[in-house]
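ok so heres the complex, two chains, lmk if somethin looks off
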Amino acid sequence: MTVKHHRLRRAALALPLGIALLAAGCGRSAGPASAGGTAAGNVSPTAGLVLTTPAGTKQVPSVTWAVYRDVETLDPMSAFDYPENTAISLMCESLLLQAPDGALRPGLATVANPSPTQMVFTLKPGVTFWNGQPVTPADVVYSLDRQMNPANGGFYGQVFSDVRSIQATGTSQVTITLTKPDYWLEGELASMPGIILSKSYTQQQGKNYGTPAGGIMCTGPYELKSFAAGAGVTAVVNPHYWNTAVKPLVQQIVIKGVPDITSFTSGMLTGAIQGSYFFGASTLDQLEHSSAVHVYQGPGQSTDALVVSAASGPLANAKVRQALSLALNRQGIISSVYKGAALMPRWLANPGTFGYGTSVFNAAYDRSPVMSQNLAQAKKLVQQAGVAGQTITLGTSSQLSSISAETGAYQAAAQAIGLKVALKSVSADNYINFFESAQARKGIDGFITVNYGDYADPAALLSTIVMPGASQNYDNYNNPQITALLEQARGTAGADARAALVAKAEQLAAQQLPWIPDAQPTNVLFLSSNLTGAVASFSYMFAPWADQLGGKS
Amino acid sequence: MRWRFLLRRLAMLAGTLLVASFVIFGSLYVAPGSPLAALSGGRALPPSSLHVLELRYHLNAPFLAQYWYWLDGALHGNLGISITLRENVSTLIASRVWTTAGLVLYASVIIALIGIGLGIVSGLRPGKVDTSSLVATALTAAVPSFVAAIVLILLFAVRLRWFPALGNGSGLLSDVQHLTLPAIALALSSLAIVARVTRTAIREEADREHVQTAVSRGIPARQLVRRHILRNAAIPITTITGITVASLIAVAAVVETAFSLNGLGSYLVQAAQTKDLAVVQGISLVLVTAFVVVNLVVDVLYALLDPRVAAGVRAR
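and the predicted structre for the whole thing:
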């Protein structure tokens, strides 16, 4: 399963997150407050966060939407970061759809499982591309093959590792045959890997597909009007949208890269920018206090954590990781780095990822302890491990203020329990090499990340960290029990049964700490105060978010 | 004589561009990190996908071969393709060059008019005007462009709403409106320096013997200032204005970022971060050319201002 790293290029520009605390009322709308159903007796861990904002009622000619840098490609195969996802999810649709609460719904197609190794997709009747041509099984097979084939250099090839074949099996039917049951694939097909492109258009554009020169051809409620380098992406309402139940109110949305936080803030305050999912805006409390801007917080799906990359040394010992975790001042991180816009972790997963089996997840989450500070217990563990006085080396970048602030919190925690800390600071641009290159990680025991999976499932992130050979398993971590639970979950059909297995794996991971979670950021939405209707949860990254956006009457 | 001068300068420009392109290419090549990091977005791609990307962008070719690929293309008018946007670099530059050109030109006009004007006035009128202009220029000279940008945005865009806070305009009038705050932010500290150098040059000339003689001959003040003071002070004023205008080209990046303008400078920074070699090369060459051209203009101006200076001979 694939995971996108939080882009550190972006962190280089964005200063620490600064959202006022989850204070009641402060600029938050009275939208539906429950993120997924909650079982009786359990308070939802995401209670108080909003999934969407109340639907707009008035037509609006044009809205300028800020992303932290210019969109670089509109090809879903190469989309990996906030700007690309924001633009593509506005205009393109996937086979299945991730609802604002993370639940999977039919998208362009419905899915059935005649056997555990067969997924049969039936296209909805009347589904068409922007140019009016109907979506055919050939388009579906082509789009998925294109993602799967490594020769195309796409980012999501590994997602299809259990796929034996993808075939058109009817006039509106496509069957995916698997080598073994894989219930994680559905989630991926509700995300970038599942987006359906026009075969003829894509073939015609060849290498130019998704670039400013080639454009795209999708099915969504908004169609591409222009994609010019520097000027951003302009999308206009698709007058032939197949889903007649959806009637967008905003005629045109311009997605513009605004890398500078001052520029973003003044843009929001003056109305030059009318909306954004800007992550890590240090001026957030200022924006929250402005009457021109409304700030909403929705469930997030990303996790802020310390990546443990040490295969030997003190951090390779679970007891030492537990001690470090117990000594860490997470409240300090949440208030200084996130200014309150994050939840205290219990698991590695953000509770915003509970997209299925929600009551099972909520109940298990409720039973798990909050990772709060306990220095006495931490010191005891270090003594048991016999590592007092030893040194751990953390990778950091003094140019990335949020990263260096969190590294500082770890430094304080380690020193408090008698460990020594050496820092290896690299430039902001080179921080990404800790993820990319084993050479750069040499001698580094850990480094900070903000990480998320492709869809709402705690396993989406966890599996990349703990499964042997997985993309983010930097320390060759192998816990047979967690691996077995996740593998079993992947092949389990029932949502609740699968959730129970994943919950167990998360609980184990919360004890064994393959990575040490620091905070669970919420998803922050900024809207001009005369607009409403945008999706507020992290699902905007994968599914249309402006269908109900419009003016207030 | 004139032709030889021009030809020589053109040859110098070509040489400068060649050396600069090699140095920029080389330093980006040896700098740590790889465009693959930008291409893959930090995801762990399977080796087969990585191989495809490496082949597509000649990432595995030796350094000199990579440089040759680029140089050969550039000599044929093809500046290459941006790795991140997969678009021709010349198209990318063309869509941004007018923003930067407009910004630098606007700022230069502000510097020339207000900077030199202020310098002349305070040079000729010692007293209150001079003192207050000294204080003002001392303050603005110390304010870097990015601070000026924040203050200007806060005051004139957010508070007073006289000017837009960010972005490019559409149409000439709206362009001017959008570029006003950035141009002021860009010009402010250079303006102060130009004003001060102008003031000193004027003072110096005014105290010279030929001016004293002219005064004693009863030459009207107007003529005195124009023909005896300004003309002689013009050389240092031109020098400092030329240098500051040339430096604006580099500083523009900061201002463009602060105001979210789609200019070459901010794009250069962005491209350097993602190791988008072809873009960095292309923009650098445009900037180096602009720099050389500004200096050429200054040299020509020397010859026009002072008949003793022949074109091609450095004036002092």
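quick notes: The first helix of chain B runs from residue 2 to 30. thats all i got rn
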